[in-house]
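Lesson 9: reading folded outputs for more than one chain in a single document. The general rule is that every protein is listed as its sequence immediately followed by its structure tokens, and records are never interleaved. Here is the first one.
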Amino acid sequence: MAYVDGFILPVPVKNLRAYRRMAQLAGKVWREHGALDYREFVADDVKVGKWTSFPRSVKLKRGETVVFSFIVYKSKAHRNAVNKRVMAEMKKSTMPPDLPFVPGRMAFGGFRTIVQG
């Protein structure tokens, strides 16, 4: 069964176009290095919950939206190998000084499949 890295992050609405360009490039890089799938989604029907919710999880502020994304791999070992290659390639390039999202409020982690179908 597949292994997934999942991400949730706040993105200023004014930066969505720049974020999308960055995400398209990232998706290309991850797939070139072996990821099975790479997806990015912007909030459409996401309400602030009483105790917890996607907006609360990233401490969403006025003028921001939530982006949810995931990368699919064959296994955790495959993920580790792909990410090692991606990180080696990223060391060769420079990150833009102004990222189009708020990295300090991003949540992420690796997940193993328990149900498929």
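And here is the second record, again sequence then tokens.
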Amino acid sequence: MTPMPVTLSLSLSDYVIIEEGTGKASLIGCLATQPVPSFPWRPRGFFVVAELTGGRGPGRLGVSIKRPDTDEPILRTEAAVYFRDPFVMVRYITRVTDRSFPVPGRYAVNLFVDGEMVGQRMLEVIPQGGST
């Protein structure tokens, strides 16, 4: 894709509410650190929400989650995306379920467009009542 889009935001949240009519997004329960009762942890579900601008035309948008210390993959998604105008914001939302986070620690959430990383966040998964 030319030009490569710019990531305006990359967030993790428990819930996403899209307001009917306006399309405004409300993120509920934004995550940076997630205390969990035991490992491996299988989340009931959380959302990865990205907003991008500056692209033009069709492309492939992907999200991956992996352990940075071992590169062990937790999740890899990919979907078609279309930027009709470089000045229009495109929102991408995917739900993470049925995945296993095997050990406490940091997990990298990476955002890709056409195979090129355009954003990253860290999710720290810790034991309840403790830290890594």
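What the second record shows: The first strand starts at residue 6 and ends at 18.
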